[in-house]
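The record is kept unedited without comment:

——
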Amino acid sequence: MDFRTELASFLQSRRARVQPEDLGIRPLSGRRRVPGLRREELAERAGVSVDYYVRLEQGRSLNVSDQVLDAIARTLRFDAAERAHLGHLTRALRGSDPDSESVTSPPQPIRSGIRILLDAVGDVPAYVLGRRLDVLAANRPARTLFVDFDALPAAQRNVAWLHFLHPGMRDLYPDWEEVARDTVAALRMDLGRFPCDDRLCTLLAELSVRSDDFRRLWAEHQVREHAHDVQRVRHPVAGELTLNRETLRLPNEPDQALVTYAAAPDTPSQEALRTLTLHLTTTARA
């Protein structure tokens, strides 16, 4: 992965969304060939020289301080995830050659207590996410609501792979575009967090080759944590459900998170989840 290109594209995309007037800056004279802030305008507001900022955007200034990164982030109105991603990218450049080969991914074991917890949450679909949005374990409601993760090859037990390449996943989400964009943003966060991860690079290459939608959304350079929201799911047995997704980081396992999909009490979606659980029980007995 060429992190110089990744850093340049990320900063350029963020400059493009901010207008000088938004920051009370008098625009520099001359014809503007691209939208957003010019490098000169950003450098002036961030308190650095134009040459210094250009070298940073091109990945040629590897010893940039946190204070400078904070100033750039404030000027470009970064949120917490974007600021963290900027730090990840600059550290990736300092730590290795951006053209270096990928490194072997370490294993991601699941503690037995987490597996017990998955089975103890009743009719709430839940799974454990690891690096690259890999699904490391899932309970029966999750395997029924989404897909039977255990029946898939290991490389396909991945949220991004499923959202873009699994034939039935698009129909599962009435708001597929929004879900897919969130997935891409979370995957890009992992790219900065785990640079040169061999399986991540392989996944990105496959998605880029096989999915026009992935290439389009990846080019937006959105970045955010896989966190919480409200999602609609359309299931052939349970019907359409509105579920609250929560992502809970596991203690002592910073690369793993428990993701749950719970319905609000006394709603049709809660009843639909109970119907799904009943269906599971009936199918198991049969």
Q: What stands out?
A: The mean pLDDT is 90. The chain is about 50% helix and 15% strand.
